[in-house]
Amino acid sequence: MFSYIVEAWAVLMANRTRTILTLIGLVVGVAAIIAVQISASAMSGAVTGAFKGLNTSMFFTFPKSSGGDLEKAALHLSDIALIESIPGVRTAIPYQQQRTVIRVGHNAVRLKFGGESDQRFSTAPLAQGRVISLDDVTSAASVCVISSKAFERLFPNGGDVVGQSVLVGDRRYVIIGVLGKTTIDTASLGLDIAADVTIPYTTYYNNYQRGQTLFGLEVLPNPGISPTSLEPAVKQALSTSHSGAQYQTFDFGMFFRTISGFFGVIGIVVGAVGGIALLVAGIGIMNIMLVSVMERTREIGVRKAIGAKGGQVLLQFFIEALLLSSIGSGIGLALGVLLGWGASALFISKISGVTAPIPWLSITSLTMIFATVVTIVFGTYPAFRASRLDPIEALRYE
Predict the structure, then answer these.
(1) Is 0.85 topped by the overall pTM?
(2) Are the C-beta atoms of 166 and 146 separated by less than 8 Å?
(3) Phi then psi for 184, rounded to 5 degrees?
(4) Using CA atoms, how far apart are residues 178 and 354, in angstroms rounded to an integer?
């Protein structure tokens, strides 16, 4: 077998220009598909990271800017009870968040600070302590729950921090819980609305928003209830309560699915282009093998005349096709990984803060499968044709 490989390599090197031109299409096709696969994985990670810790079944409602009298449409704390009375609504809270300096001792960090209810709008797991309770909300307690990001930045030495306090301005909040990491951690993306330090929304309202109108409301449906089925009822209830004022909603889950679908379509389109390049490359391999068979017709005749069997000739040309496709797929793999990693590390991760893992298993599998398919589909016919040559006719060929 080794002698067949050595001979195949010698044949390819004897026709370097033709071999290189044939490999170019194969390299471009494989590299394009792999680079897109890595980039798509990074983009998907960026979108997922943008919604880290956020319950994507929730939706956001706020006055419609083109809906007339915005003063009439202004939301108040009393609108929460109205929305919670709608069948299928689990809870609603004001959307209230600011980026401010949080202090622990001499450590001061600028983080997102907001309110939440006992019904969690966050899906991040609990690492320490407990989450905000109904009693905390009812009594407007001065307690807080911090994210894993806040924990790492405020307490670089780690440890159990439940019972310690953080300062926001001149107000002190006792830490009752620490959230764990979500699947993908990200620094920030413009859509990352999950707060790093959360207090009961009643506490937030009393301390920072009393007497002010609300920018909007976050609505959390009951489990199994689709946000899209509740949005019309929420807008209608608010419109009726506010003398015909108009409202709009923003469905986080729908947005997430739309963006993910968009990246999926891009991957399919670019993958299709890469697939066409691979098809052209496969045809090129078949052509070069057919030319090789024609040029070596007399050699094949000599080999068969001295006892070489058809299977041995077939194997020789089959190995040449396999070697050619393996080299092209290997170079394409390396180039595709380099391009995909470069796009992820230098562009996508810089914007999103996400460094997505490279799907090595699927990439390697894809490359191996393609090399095998190209060899079988485009290399078998020339090899079979060579093995079927009549030795007498082959010896007469000039």
Answers:
(1) no
(2) yes
(3) -125, 125
(4) 22
